[in-house]
Write a structure and sequence with these properties.
By secondary structure, the chain is mainly beta. It has one domain: Rossmann fold (3-Layer(aba) Sandwich). It is 14% helix and 35% strand. It has four helices and 16 strands. It has a seven-stranded mixed beta sheet. The chain has a four-stranded antiparallel beta sheet with strand order 1-2-3-4, with no helix packed on it. Strands 8-12-9 form a three-stranded mixed beta sheet. Strand 2 and strand 3 form a beta hairpin. The chain is globular and about 45 Å long. The N terminus is likely disordered.
């Protein structure tokens, strides 16, 4: 077993061992040109280990920039424009917004198209924790977003949760997949031609 250290956490074989299962990632991404694109970066807990190792670009309407990252205060969606979100509270530990029918405020944020971000940045890895927007983001692309992809699939309410499996199968046309945390719906994807048994 090969063990090393990145950002104060251990790496076993080729997998970065995050403090939580959903914080894990394959360290081979460090050898791929391109930045880390962290969609839903409030709190920076997922992308923090990359700081100083790769360029880190975060997109989140509520995040605060920290040393060593680039922040774009916006939401990500299938097209550019703006989005009205009903926000009842900010939960930085959950990397996003809490949407609640009680006592909400509607706030307009700029929306960046995922395709524009991918074309501009050519990221090595994309992480998506977008509080239900992951569904619209993922179905709007017709090719792999990056060689590595980490996604948090949120509960789909009355849809019964099956839509996440449809999207996982959609992504598996390009990627090998690995569940990271069933509790939080986290999955990790590596492009098939790069996977080499790493998933």
């Amino acid at each position: 077993m090969q063990r090393s250290c990145i950002g104060g956490r251990s790496v076993i074989n080729d997998w970065f061992d995050g403090a939580e299962q959903w914080l894990s990632w394959n360290r081979k991404v460090l050898d791929i040109p391109g930045p880390v694109l962290d969609i839903g970066c409030a709190g920076w807990n997922w992308s923090r280990p990359f700081i100083g190792l790769k360029r880190v670009v975060g997109v989140d309407p509520l995040a605060t920039a920290i040393c060593g990252v680039e922040l774009r205060r916006a939401v990500v969606g299938p097209w550019s424009g703006s989005a009205d979100l009903e926000v009842s509270a900010i939960n930085p530990d959950a990397s996003g917004l809490i949407v609640s029918p009680e006592q909400t405020n509607t706030v307009r944020y700029p929306m960046l198209a995922i395709s524009d971000l991918i074309n501009e940045l050519r990221p090595a890895i994309v992480k998506i924790n977008a509080e239900w927007a992951e569904y619209a983001i993922l179905v709007s692309v017709a090719q792999p977003m990056a060689p590595h992809l980490a996604v948090s699939f949120h509960p789909t309410g009355e849809w019964g949760g099956g839509i996440d499996w449809v999207l996982i199968r959609w992504l598996e046309q390009w990627y090998e997949s690995r569940p990271l945390s069933q509790e939080y719906g986290w999955w990790y994807f590596i492009e098939k031609d790069r996977a080499n048994g790493d998933v």
